[in-house]
């Protein structure tokens, strides 16, 4: 917290979404390309800056080291030199030195990307470096390295901060993977389409495989990502070597896209060989973001009761076999921070799902809830400092903590219908300038969000309230068996071929 306070003073607007974790990330919206990392070690701290970071990232890096030295009265060493401490941080990382590193980063990654795929993970989007991206940045073979480095920085900043959104087709870490011809499991970028939800994504995320899933007809096609370039819709535009900004497709456009994809299907008989995991089948667009925990946002999509985890600028879908544990932790023990940390450990890749659930059950002895949550169990959800953060059709609405008491009084009086007029009045009196019909639509969304987050449902017999460990475990193992079965079937077919 001392570091957070000092860096916030030096760099107003700095974001540290995971402050207090073993590794924290520091970045400035609009100025950073790749977050600077601070990791607590047994003997001190490691400060890490990544290749192709912005100039401003380097200033954060330099100041972070200086503030650590001031707070700890310690010594700083370069990664490859443990003998000689850094005597003067500002001189070791002077503006001139940073300019040279900045130029060398560009030169080395440009050379490397000629021979190999180079992907860097940035604050909002991963970036696939290569000749197409350099051309988009205005760089050609005759551009001097110092000028080219500046052009690249400006273009990468525009990708990270000037695009309309960053909801992508990236799948969660625990999502089912495809076994390639070499026998290695590879990630899938998944595009899910339904007539009710045709505009689910802002950009197409690069992974070795690409899945197109028609949610209305329960039909999937999986192709190698390299073949996507041959069938991509004309309204989608590349923003780097591999990835596309995408626009919503009509049903006709999507059907044509799916038909073209079938020509490159990775499985000759998709119904028999390909299949899709339960997670892919249930994945839907997420529109309603609810309440922040300490530094992670846990949310429900009221259109599908799908859970997500939002960390920094990245959103992850939570598999169905975790959701009941999360409900149990959030609403039985009222421990949102522990829930967030459990989910962080899953999605960071530091812990597989099974281990995370084992850890959860060891720390929290499973017990059946004696009854569904009653109205008398309701408690304020709003963060005292930041209020209750809701999102309706990408319109952020923040209800102050003191106003939530009014919502609770309505619910405890069993006046559920009064929520919609309350939100209509709140939107109108707080400067949300919508036409009456649009205000009403937003009020319905916000009222639904609040009901779901309080873990209330119109049907109190809904198993959504329960905590059934056997059911959860059964679902998990059914998914795992299905994945193993698909792998075995692919192996048998390959052997016959």
Characterize the largest beta sheet: strand count, sense, and whether it forms a barrel: 4 strands, antiparallel
The radius of gyration computed from the alpha-carbon positions, rounded to a whole number of angstroms, is 25 Å
Strand order of the largest sheet: 14-15-16-17
- Mean pLDDT comes to 76
How much strand content do the residues show? 15-25%
Runs with pLDDT <50, length 5+? 269-307, 309-316, 457-476
Overall body shape: globular
Number of strands: 19
Number of discrete helical segments: 17
Distance between the termini: 60 Å
Helicity range of the residues? 40-55%
Question: What structural class do helix, strand and pairing data support?
Answer: alpha+beta
Write up this protein.
The protein has 497 residues and is α+β, with helices and mostly antiparallel strands. It is 41% helix and 16% strand. It is built from 17 helices and 19 strands. It has a 4-stranded antiparallel sheet with strand order 14-15-16-17. A 3-stranded antiparallel sheet has the order 1-2-3, covered by helices on one side. The longest helix has 28 residues, at 469-496. It is globular, with a radius of gyration of 25 Å. It starts with a helix and ends with a helix. The model is unreliable at 269-307, 309-316 and 457-476 (pLDDT under 50).
State the gist of this model.
This protein has 17 helices and 19 strands. The chain is of the alpha+beta class and 497 residues long.
